[in-house]
Amino acid sequence: MHVLRPPPRQAFSLIELLVVIAIIVLLMALLLPAIQKVRASVDSLRCKNNLRQIGIACHHYHLDYGKLPPGGIEWRPFGNTTKRQLAWSAFILPYIEQDNLSKDLNLNKPFDDPANAVAAAQVVKIYLCPSSRRDGNLMQGRGACDYGGMYGERIMSPNNPPKGAMIYDRAFRLTDIRDGTSNTLMISEDCGFIDGQWINGNNIFDQAFAINKAPPWENDIRSDHPQGANGLFCDGSARFLSQNMSLPVLAAICTRAGGEPITEE
User: How many Cβ atoms from other residues are within 10 Å of residue 22's Cβ?
Assistant: First the structure.
């Protein structure tokens, strides 16, 4: 009995194959920007979450000590190696579930003392923005920090005395933030600065430029997010700060008691 068989399957022609490849390439070109945009949005949200946790830690510190952590202690003039120059981010370690790391530090010694070398080299994930494009998670052999305390502003006038919520050798009560805790930046992104180390008291700064516009040698509000950077306000809220924010408003949110009107954000 003769069995009917289907005709043999025809292979793709070269032209058909090239058309399929071209369609796939076109779809990838159309989808890639959308994927990158979603990834950037997710990274920005994760960065905000880091700042919120840092804000909660600062408020718990306030509950225990009656004040926010100081921006830093014993800042060093150039050439001085005796002052400790310790940062706010070292003082809140017990409040971000880093008790063991905190116990390994000797806060009676400088940030770069050999006694602190091993602990200072530890990477603390909450201090790293997921969008940061640094080469590694160590800066000069110490754990990096993408967030800096707000020392004040020098956009509109000199920052002397310092006008921010985080300055050296002085800690503020929330009631000292007379511009309002929801209007005053406490900490913001400062990605990639060479002294951006969580133990080093150089991770505070006074704002001098528009967001993301500072030269590389200045520590200022900067990030690897498109169009702006994230900031933590004294009320514990984390918000995205547009790099198109007007300079008077940017200056106003960098001061704790300047009395400036804030008409936009």
Answer: 10
Whole-prediction pTM value? 0.84
Q: Pairing relation of β-strands 185-189 and 147-153? A: antiparallel
Residue 109 CA to residue 98 CA, distance in Å, equals 19
Mean pLDDT, to the nearest integer, of 94-101?
A: 97
pLDDT digit string, tens, across residues 143-162:
999 999 999 999 999 999 99
Task: Name, in order, each residue with C-beta under 8 angstroms of 177's C-beta and a sequence gap of 6 or more.
Answer: 165, 184, 234, 256, 257
- Residue 260: phi and psi, rounded to 5, are -75, 145
Give the pair of three-digit tokens for residue 247. Answer: 């300079």
Q: Is the peptide bond before 8 cis (omega within 30 degrees of 0)?
A: no
Helix (H) or strand (E) holding 185: strand 185-189
Order of strands across the sheet that contains 228-233? 204-207, 147-153, 185-189, 228-233, 238-242
